[in-house]
Specification:
The structure holds 2 protein chains of 2 kinds. Chain A is mainly beta. Helices cover 0% and strands 55% of the residues of chain A. Chain A has no helices and 11 strands. In chain A, strands 2, 4, 5, 9, 10 and 11 form a 6-stranded mixed beta sheet that branches. The mean pLDDT of chain A is 92. In chain B, strands 2, 4, 5, 6, 9, 10 and 11 form a 7-stranded mixed beta sheet that branches. A 4-stranded antiparallel beta sheet of chain B has the order 1-3-8-7, with no helix packed on it. The N and C termini of chain B lie far apart (37 Å). Classes of the chains: A mainly beta, B mainly beta. At the A-B interface, strand 5, strand 9 and strand 10 of A face strand 4, strand 5 and strand 10 of B.
């Protein structure tokens, strides 16, 4: 059983604050690391798929970094807005049968941004 | 962006009923679809990988005869919870990955189905 952990479990920040959270994953047999944003009553939406050690990806005010050697990824949100309120999930793919990889999800970080 | 439709979004039914949940990829072909289950305050747990035209691959501990999966076309996978009991009450969500793309491509999720068995 793969161990994918996220911290903190929940986070409450004020509008304008910058924040970050962590995903730790096995450092062996690394293929990629996925980040998803899951807003209430919506479907999880892919933010990033990171594949290279040292990779840094950015989407608007959200960015992510990757350290495959030590097995962690950080997600950063700059200047949080209420619409950033969601659960942020990371997921670690491993090869299933054939070429179909399967994802092991962390429990998520629930972010709430208030005015 | 890629759209996955999951239906129904909510089911409330009596114990012993079989419930079918559909997962459709609306604007792309999906060779592989995934079915997850989420218990309260836990992460998404993969139940099975649905492969178009072949048998589904079930995760350890998931009963094949209880959770029947059919992936008859490149745009539709169904999960049938047979003779559902209260312990099957949960949130079920599907995802799909575009055909022919690398396994490191993101998955596209449906909105999920909240199943409540009385």
């Amino acid at each position: 059983i793969l161990n994918v952990e996220q911290s903190p479990q929940s986070l409450h920040v004020q509008e304008g604050d910058s924040t970050n959270f962590t995903c730790s994953f096995p450092s062996s047999n690394f293929y990629a690391l996925h980040w998803y944003r899951w807003e209430t009553a919506k479907s999880p939406e892919a933010l990033f798929v990171m594949t290279l050690n040292g990779d840094e990806k950015k989407k608007g005010r959200i960015s992510a970094t990757l350290n495959t050697k030590e097995g962690y990824s950080y997600l950063y949100i700059k200047g949080s807005q209420p619409e950033d309120s969601a659960t942020y999930l990371c997921a670690f793919p491993s090869i299933n049968t054939g070429t179909a990889s399967k994802l092991t999800f962390g429990t998520g970080t629930r972010l709430q941004v208030t005015l | 962006g890629a759209v996955v439709s999951q239906h129904p979004s909510r089911v409330i039914c009596k114990s012993g009923t079989s419930v079918k949940i559909e997962c459709r990829s609306l604007d792309f072909q999906a060779t592989t679809m995934f079915w997850y289950r989420q218990f309260p305050k836990q992460s998404l747990m993969l139940m099975a990988t649905s492969n178009e035209g072949s048998k589904a691959t079930y995760e350890q501990g998931v009963e094949k005869d209880k959770f029947l999966i059919n992936h008859a076309s490149l745009t539709l996978s169904t999960l049938t919870v047979t003779s559902a009991h209260p312990e099957d009450s949960s949130f079920y969500i599907c995802s799909a990955r575009r055909r022919y793309l690398d396994s490191n491509q993101p998955q596209h999720f449906g909105d999920g189905t909240r199943l409540s068995i009385l």
